[in-house]
């Protein structure tokens, strides 16, 4: 059979696969999310190796003052505002009647559990690639039970417009996946949409919507990015099915549309998933914006204009805003220091970096660089907490605890095992942490990129160990906070600059 049909049982399987727990998300006020608003407020005896911040700045924000620090808007690039999906700056923030609700540990444990589901799916996806990718061989009717794409709960949201006339859609952006999709109107008839804030996109009211035929390369190449494809028996339209690591999914018609990033940056024929059955914790966003490395991603589809160059800054709190920018723009900032993208493929979508060491408080940890070279490392916008090979994590933890001896350790929160009870401290001093990359770049993390505050009773080192040293390390989004992160994919490099946003 040349064009496999996605059978109804396969659609059913997508449904059945859905067991996500909404427990905390439905109970919590979103604004009590994981804001970590550390700022250097005072000089400290060892300013070169230590951050000193007020403890209360480490705790989730309850009120917000809008960020005044703007981003550098560059004429030759397209800049979108980035907000945290749980933040008061996002449209998704619930009206603040319930803003005094806190879920503290349960809420954070749930967030961290989702994060672990994403990491598990990244690991299992990379393991599949090491052996043989079952998605490339099988017809589109089965989804390997252990495969599954990266989790759908991206934490950061941008707003783009789709269709003619253009309709605004807020999408979670993800450097770990490639397909861009949004919920499409027909899902409401069958009650197969999750709740989103904006009206659901209606392709039938758009003059520029087209279905992609299932016989095209654009359709069949979906399997190379781990997305199932099939053929509608009645219309020969390309059907897609993508499942994320937390059993979120989107199934629908693969189509093309006019994508409007800014009033001057418009892309005709942008390939996207028009999701007819969607489930998951997408936090009120209308879908996903795939920024991965393979050729269905927005990075590839806009390569003629932006030459595979994009950058972002993830805000440090759920109150502040960052940006996602496409294109190099006029000036490149001198402050950006680059390291090479790994040339050895790591799955299809992921951006690999060559980490060789970690510094804590200005001192290089005693970790053999072979620990990093054998596990490899990716940078991911959608993973929250950085994951390290256990050998590296244990060295980091020991050095961090050594320097934090004057603070009382307290119980772990989910995967975070180095937590301090800071309730009787006004300020806290903790060591600076840097990643050392092959080629000489030492990139210091922002002060907000080291700790994860659940409450004053539990402020934790925001790193975790993998199960074993063979699993890939992941530089997560807490550690990217406030850094300007530049992806020069055509130039084969990724760069960083400090204090890119608030
Ligand atoms: C996308 O990638 C696949 C696999 O590498 C390749 O076969 C296909 O030709 C590419 N398509 C485009 C449009 O570049
Ligand atoms: C944290 O420390 C405070 C003051 O020392 C104490 O009252 C509180 O019970 C501690 N919290 C936990 C969770 O241990």
Please name the CATH architecture of the largest domain.
Beta Barrel
Radius of gyration (CA) equals 22 Å
> Main sheet: which strands, in order across?
3-4-11-5-10-9
Helix content: 10-25%
Write out the CATH superfamily name of the largest domain: Acid Proteases
Number of helices: 11
Unreliable stretches, pLDDT < 50, 5 or more residues? Answer: 1-44, 67-76, 91-103, 129-152
Number of strands: 30
CATH class annotation of the largest domain: Mainly Beta
* Proportion of beta-strand residues: 25-35%
Bound molecules: 2-acetamido-2-deoxy-beta-D-glucopyranose
Biggest sheet architecture: 6 strands, mixed, barrel
**Average pLDDT for all residues:** 80
Find the structural class using helix and strand composition.
Answer: alpha+beta
Count of spatially separate domains: 2
CATH topology of the largest domain: Cathepsin D, subunit A, domain 1
Topology:
Layout: H1 8-16, H2 23-27, E1 50-54, E2 78-84, H3 104-131, H4 134-137, E3 156-162, E4 167-174, E5 181-183, H5 186-189, E6 210-211, H6 217-220, E7 228-231, E8 238-243, E9 249-262, E10 265-279, E11 287-290, H7 298-301, H8 303-306, E12 309-313, E13 321-326, E14 337-340, E15 351-353, E16 355-360, E17 363-364, H9 369-375, E18 377-379, E19 386-388, H10 390-403, E20 409-410, E21 419-420, E22 427-431, E23 433-437, E24 442-444, E25 451-455, E26 458-461, E27 463-465, E28 473-475, H11 477-480, E29 484-488, E30 493-497
Parallel strand pairs: 4-11, 5-10, 18-28, 19-27
Antiparallel strand pairs: 1-22, 2-3, 2-13, 3-4, 3-9, 5-11, 6-9, 7-8, 8-9, 9-10, 12-13, 12-29, 14-30, 15-18, 16-17, 16-23, 20-21, 21-26, 23-24, 25-26, 29-30
The protein binds 2-acetamido-2-deoxy-beta-D-glucopyranose (2 copies).
One 2-acetamido-2-deoxy-beta-D-glucopyranose binds near residues 217, 221, 224 and 295.
